[in-house]
Amino acid sequence: MLNDDFELSIPKETLASMPIVTYPGEITVIDSAIDTVKALRFLSSLPLVGFDTETKPNFRPGRTNNVALIQIYSPNRCFLFRINKTGLTDEMVRFLESEKTVKVGVSLHDDFRNLNKIRQVNPHAEIDLQQLVKRFHIRDNSLQRIYAIVFEKRISKSQRLTNWEAPQLNEKQQIYASIDAWACYKLYTYLSAGLFHPEKSAYIAHDDQSSSPTP
User: Fold this and answer.
1) Is 3 within a domain?
2) Which of 12, 115, 130, 164 is the Cys-Cys partner for 54 at CB 3.0 to 4.6 Å?
3) Could you tell me whether strands 77-81 and 26-30 are parallel, antiparallel, or unpaired per DSSP bridges?
């Protein structure tokens, strides 16, 4: 019988052997100010969305790029806002600052810190899964590991270091970006519904098990 003093952590080898997640929804790429307004009008009517960002990697020490993409998942569809083309519009800032729609993501502090390099944003109604999962004894804090512990499937990270400022996002990039926002939404709704029982998990870390590194 377990007491409440336990943690969940998935070994690297176990994670690598899991089946890869497939994205089940639709995708809409937004690369104009007009389409941004239309999409955010719809998203603003929802109580909850999944949220993530992507930035073009820079392999030169000391140099970073601005956020290129904002992913917002609504039920059955992910909107990919190419803010490297549209800019961080007034409508997007109002959406991020709105208390009406809850934005669920992972490491949101980093996302909004990076967005603030483009334009001042004071986010409201955000939920960070890294904090939420502590209630469920989950020690690992990357989206990939959290998702694997809860759903026993692996989110592929093969597109993470691709060019998010490319003239066109290819299909693999679109799917990768959508999965992250979708996974945040799915995790939150599943955990909030009380469907995950940590005491029954196969990933209970024993005292002699070292903490798994975050990829």
Assistant:
1) no
2) 164
3) parallel
Q: Which two tokens stand for residue 87?
A: 């800019």
Pair of tokens at residue 193: 């519904």
For residue 69, give the amino acid letter: L
| DSSP letter string, 130-184 | HHHGGGGTB---SHHHHHHHHHS-B---TTTTS-TTSSS--HHHHHHHHHHHHHH
- 70: in domain: yes
Q: Output the pTM of the full model.
A: 0.91
pLDDT for 88-136, tens place per residue?
Answer: 999 999 999 999 999 999 999 999 999 999 999 999 999 999 999 999 9
159-191: b (≥16 Cβ within 10 Å) or e: beebebbeeebeeebbbbbbbbbbbbbbbbeeb
For residue 124, give the CATH number of its domain: 3.30.420.10
> What one-letter code names the amino acid at 29?
V
Instruction: Determine how many CB atoms are found less than 10 A away from the CB of residue 116.
Output: 14
For 141-152, how does the pLDDT look when each residue is reduced to its tens digit (9 = 90+)? 999 999 999 999
